[in-house]
Amino acid sequence: MAPNTAVNALQDGKRRQAQALLQDGEVWLIAARESGVRPEPALTLVAGVDVTWDSLFLLTRDEAVAIVGRFDADAVPPGWTVYGYDADLRDLLRAEVTRLGARRVLLNISEDDPLCDGLTAGLERRVRGWLAPASDLAGDDLPALEWGSAAPLLGQLRSVKTPAEHAAIRGAVNLAEAHLREMAAAARPGWTERDVAAFLHGLCRRDGAEPSWGWAACPNVHVGPDSRPSHAPPGDHALRPGALLHIDYGVRLSHGYCSDIQRVYRLPDGNPVPEEVQAAFRACWQAIQAGAAALRPGTPGYAVDAAARAALIAAGYPEYQHALGHGLGRATHDGGTLLGPRWPRYGQTVEGPVREDEVYTLELGVMVAGHGFIGLEEDVIVRDGPPEWLSARQDDLRDLTG
C-alpha cells in the first residue's frame, strides 16, 4: 500500500536532501528485495515502499529512478521515474547507469553503522555482476565504474534532520512525556515492573502509537535496588514506599518517527529523600548539562561524550559503560555520528562531527546502593549555539502521585 501523504512528504524531503549531497557523476544505488522481511533502512528513509523482487533505486543530483518488479511499480511514491520489469532487470540498469553519466556508484556498505549497511552480500554480488564489463550486449557502452560506500552520505542524511522531521520527533517526545505523566499519577504500591509496562502499552494502543523499540522490551523498567538496569523485559520487582522507579521509554508514531527518554521517580514514604539519592541525581543532571554544553556543530562525537563522562567521574561516580548519546529519528538508534568514547566497539562512528539540525539523545545514570538506578535521558536538536531541548528536562526527582 502506498504511504499516506504526510509520510510521503517526509520521505520526499529526505530524497531531495540526499540528492543535494551527491556529486556530479555519482549514483547512489539502493538495492533491496523481500524488504518486508529484510528491510533496507535507506529505502524506508527515502522511498517508504516495500518491494518483493530484486529492486534498484538510483539517485543522482538531478534524477531519481526506480527499477522494480512489475507488480511493485504502482507502489513507488511520486518523485521517482519508475521502470517495471518481468524477466530481467540487467539491461534496464545498464542503460540507466549509462544515461545518467555515472562514474562512481555508491552502495550501502558500512563496517561501523548498521543503518548504512543495508546491502546484503548476495545482492551486492548480483549488482556488481549486472554492472560488470560485458561484450555480449550490442551497443552497450557502459563506462568503467568506480565503486564506493554510501555510508558518509547516508550517515549525514539520516542524522541531519529537516524541519518536518524535527516536528515529527517533537510530536513523539510530547506523547511519551504525556504517557509518563499519566503513569506517575496512576502507579500504586505493589505495581510491578510488568504492571508499569502494561499501563504504558495500554496508552500506546489508545493513542495509535507503538513502543519505540518494540513491545517486548520498551519500556525498560527498573524498581528498587535489586533491579539491575538492562535491556531485558520488565520483571516482577514491585513498588514499595521509598523505592526508586526508573523508566526508559519512547513511542513511535504513524509517520515512523520516535522518541527516547528516561525518567526516575520515587514512591513517597513520608521521609525526606535520602541525601545519597539526591546527590546521585544532581551528579547525573550536571553531567548531562556538561554534555549539552559541548554539543556544538563541528565537535567530534567522542569529545561530547568526554565532557559528560568527566563531569560524572569528577562527582565521584563510576563512568557509564555506553555512549552518552545517539541519533534519533526513524530509528531509536538512527545512525550517523555517535556521542561515545573511543572504544573499539564503536569504530569510526564517534570520530564524526556533530552537525547542526541533528537530533541526539543525552543519557547516563548511576546505581545507588540500597535504593536503585537513577538514569536520565533527554532529546535535543543541535543548533548553532546551545542545543534545543525537545524534552522537558527532568530537573529534580519526581514523586509518584497515585
Automatic annotation (TrEMBL):
Protein name, as recorded:
Peptidase M24 domain-containing protein
Database matches in InterPro entries: Creatinase/aminopeptidase-like (IPR036005), Pept_M24 (IPR000994), Peptidase_M24B (IPR050659)
Instruction: Report the transmembrane regions from the record.
Output: none
At the top level of its lineage, which domain of life is listed? Bacteria
Please name the source species: Deinococcus actinosclerus
- Write one Pfam family the protein is assigned to: Peptidase_M24
- Enumerate the spans annotated as Peptidase M24 domain: 168-383
